[in-house]
Structures are given as structure tokens and as C-alpha cells.
Amino acid sequence: CMVTRSIFASISEIIEILITGLCMKYLLFLLLLIPQLGYCDIQPIKLTENSIGTMPIKVKDDISLQKVRQYFPNYLVQHEIRMGDSPDFHAFIVSTYEGEELFFFISYINTPEDYEKGVVKLDELIVVSPHIRDQFGISPGMPLEVANTRRSSLTFGEGHMDFYFGGGKIWYMVSVTVPEGQLINQQTVTKLNPMIDKLSWPSPWWN
């Protein structure tokens, strides 16, 4: 009888160990699966002339940290004061939680009082991630020829530090390097076929 009880006890322990092991495996599987399910619920963000994702955009609309977070709850939204070859500006930055910056809203600072404002006016929007496409299917990181193929009669110009192609409210910023003294015009830049650095709305950035 003692032997029988011992055998049954051992079998029970083995079953308990197996069940515990299976539960841990299923638990681990669920922990890995849940973030993926959440990611699938995040809709791709597209830039159009009138919206970014589900957020309507219009020049001089009110923009704030709270408003941007409302439209992009699945992303990290931060506010910074940035500087450049322009007046300082409020930047409302939308990034992934892995640290990839996707795009940012700009509101230029024109008076000392503007630095302290929490709600400001929207001036520009800059897309920097290849994961964000515009209404023509064009994104940063694509060669310029894609934009020339998908859109006709793009306007060309030279900005302060780069060049731009585009029209309407969506523009493509590119950088090129040419030998000193070589003429740089639309034909030269088009032939070089540089990668698109950024998308700019509603006009070329820093133009």
C-alpha cells in the first residue's frame, strides 16, 4: 500500500509539473501575442492635403499637446522648443514607443510670449519616417523618380539648405551634392534621383 501511494504521489507530482509547465508556456505565448494584437489595431497613418491620419489639419488651426495625443493615442507625443535657420518653433513630435520619430507639427514663435503658450497656431507639418506615406503613396526614403512618376508637373525650387519638388500642399525635400561650379537646376537634381528626405505640408519647409 505504501508503495502504491508513493507511485500515485509521484505520478501526481509529474502531472502537476507538466500542467504548470504548459501553463507557463501558454502564458508566455499570450504575453508575446497581446502586443502584436494591439499593433494590428493601429491603422496606417497617411498624409493628405487636409489631414494626417484621422486628424484634420489646416494652417493656423489650434494645435496643442493634448490635441495631438487625442488623435494619436497609440504613439508617444512630446512637445519641444526647437531652433533652426528660422525663428524658434514649437514642435509637437509623434514617435513610436521604440523611439522612431514619425512626424512633427510646427508652430513658429514670433513673440516672447509665444514661448509660454500651451495652445498655438499650426504653421507646418514635417514627415520624416518611411512608414508614413502621403495620398500618392510617397514616403521619405523613396527615390525622387517615384514622385515624378506618380505626380505630374511637380514644381521645383531651391530652399535654404536643400531642394524641393511638389505642388498643392504636399512637398518633397531632397539634398544633393554636386561638384563646385556645376549648375544645379531641376534637370540636374532629377537626373541625380536623390532619396526623398522629408515630406512637407503645406509648403516647402524653410523656403
- Tell me the fraction of residues in β-strands, as a range: 25-35%
Radius of gyration equals: 26 Å
Helix content: 25-40%
> How many DSSP E strands?
14
Q: What kind of oligomer do you see?
A: single chain
Mean pLDDT: 86
> H/E element string?
HEEEEHEEEEEEHEEEHE
SSE layout:
Elements: H1 2-40, E1 46-47, E2 51-52, E3 55-56, E4 62-64, H2 65-71, E5 76-84, E6 86-95, E7 101-108, E8 119-121, E9 124-127, E10 133-134, H3 144-150, E11 155-158, E12 163-167, E13 170-174, H4 186-192, E14 196-201
Parallel strand pairs: 1-10
Antiparallel strand pairs: 2-3, 4-8, 5-6, 6-7, 7-9, 9-14, 11-12, 12-13, 13-14
Fold and architecture overview:
- With 207 residues, this protein is α+β, with helices and mostly antiparallel strands.
- Helix content is 29%, strand content 31%.
- The protein contains four helices and 14 strands.
- It has helices at residues 2-40, 65-71, 144-150, 186-192, and strands at 46-47, 51-52, 55-56, 62-64, 76-84, 86-95, 101-108, 119-121, 124-127, 133-134, 155-158, 163-167, 170-174, 196-201.
- The strands form four sheets. It has an eight-stranded antiparallel β-sheet with strand order 5-6-7-9-14-13-12-11.
- Strand 12 (163-167) and strand 13 form a beta hairpin.
- The longest helix has 39 residues, at 2-40.
- The chain is globular and about 85 Å long.
- The termini are far apart.
- Residues 33-41 have low confidence and may be disordered.
